[in-house]
Amino acid sequence: MNLYCLNKFGNDEIIASLRAFAKEESLPDYYTAARGLLKFSAERAYSANTVAEYAVRLIVEDETLISYDGGSPFFKSDIEKIYKLIFSVDWDALCKKCGVLPISHISPKTRPEESAGGYVASIMQAAASTSAEALFSRICEHCKKYGAGSLSAYSALKWEDGKLIGVTGADKITFDDLTGLDEQKKILIENTRAFMLGKPSNNVLLVGSSGTGKSSCVKACMNMFGDDGLRLVEIAKTDLPSLPKAMNILKNKTMKYIIFIDDLSFEHDDISYKQLKVALDGQIEKRADNILIYATSNRRNLVRETSADRSGAYEDIHQNDTVNEKVSLSRRFGINLYFMSPNQTEYIKIVENLLKAEGIEATDEILARARSWAINYNGRSGRTARQFVDDLLGHM
Questions:
Q1: Using CA atoms, how far apart are residues 237 and 243, in angstroms rounded to an integer?
Q2: Structural domain range at position 355
């Protein structure tokens, strides 16, 4: 198949086998295509029209598509040719004629977790197109909202070894799952919504004790705004030296990205924090409009100070400058949110909500065990409550 832009589509084995089957009624090609579609259906498909969904995903996840917009006559020509050769064929009638099982019998077996709901709905809408014009319009609309390329299907990404990697099975937690934290949730949602609308917004530092919901709030943002085109990119502290490279890649993409740095802190002799300082506020180039940084930490001052920093034992004649440089990192986040450990009443409320979600009655006996669990293990926190409920489920 000769195409201008979509080389991946034209060279795909399943597509080539389908075309050969349609043209020559070749049964070996039918079986090659059927095996490939069965695998695709089990792993990724949502639509009953497996051929159409496979074709749409192949189009929108083609990396070269990023170079073309809706105004390209070459891209439009490719879509028209694809529609004629793939979408307009009555595959079941052809299968019946050849005495083989209809391709429509290949239907989705699972719902893969890597795709955001809005992304999937957009794919299914494009797969249901009944004309080349409708297919072209829906694919352009999809790419404008969700971007293109293989990573566009993932709501969560990781930055590892200098490249972006899609995360399967991303945490589906929502703000409704998080008891309390009303003020923190309100501020974080408002800031993220402003970001999604292209309005001024701030980088956010979430500070507090372990297990108090900091990371969960960031993941809940991803799930709340994922259908609107928000993606979460997790980067480990050890990868911070390559943060400028990651931001340079993300700024040229269509979607909105929150760079997520979890459990952030630095020892006094660790200078990698300087890369983060520059990324937050200090580059000569204006910060990209489609990138924010959300970080969590157990410490208000992200860079640990030593008594020597304060006493001047290093004979630093600019002692105050040294101290100010280390505490200034947290100040470069426009918003600092503080998460406190829940009191007894709040802790029990969290436990009750978790039990309700699991269909378990919160009896006096169970709640008494929850209090004992917190005393005997990790103290009162949302994480402790979750661990207690998991243990309870494990013994039922």
A1: 10
A2: 344-394
Count of positions (residues) in the chain: 396
Q: How many Å apart are CA 377 and CA 116, to the nearest integer? A: 36
Examine the domain organization and report whether 202 and 87 are in the same domain: no
By the 10 Å C-beta count (0-12 exposed, 13-18 middle, 19+ buried), 57 is classed as buried
Condensed to tens digits (0 to 9), the pLDDT of residues 246-263 reads 999 998 888 899 999 998
Residue found by looking up tokens 């307009």 in the block: 88
Which helix H or strand E contains 190, and what residues bound it? helix 182-196
Residue 161 counted as domain residue = no
Same domain, 194 and 313: yes
| Nearest Cα to Cα of residue 148 among 76, 228, 66, 67 | 66
Annotate 48-104 with DSSP letters as a single string.
Answer: S-HHHHHHHHHHHT-GGGGG--TT-HHHHHHHHHHIIIIITS-HHHHHHHHTS--GG
Instruction: Residue 365: count other Cβ atoms within 10 Å of its Cβ.
Output: 8
Same domain, 186 and 298: yes
Which residues, 6 or more positions from 237, have their beta carbon under 8 angstroms from its beta carbon? 261, 263, 264, 265, 266, 272
> Is residue 191 domain-shared with residue 283, that is, in the same domain?
yes
pTM greater than the 0.70 cutoff = yes
Concatenated DSSP letters for 97-141?
Answer: HHTS--GGG-------SSS-HHHHHHHHHHHT--SHHHHHHHHHH
We report the CATH number of the domain holding residue 202 as 3.40.50.300
- 287 and 353 housed in the same domain: no
Q: 3-state class of 205 per DSSP?
A: strand
Residue with tokens 């931001």: 247
The rounded distance, in Å, linking the Cα atoms of 163 and 144 is: 23
CA 117 to chain centre: 12
CA dist., res. 183 & res. 320, Å (int): 35
How buried is residue 343: exposed, middle or buried, by Cβ count under 10 Å (0-12/13-18/19+)?
exposed
| Count of the separate structural domains present in the chain | 3
- For residue 9, CA distances in Å to 3, 49, 107, 305, 325 come to 8, 18, 22, 56, 52
Residues 177-223 pLDDT 10s = 888 789 999 999 999 999 999 999 999 999 988 888 999 999 999 99
Look at residue 159 and tell me if it is in a domain.
no
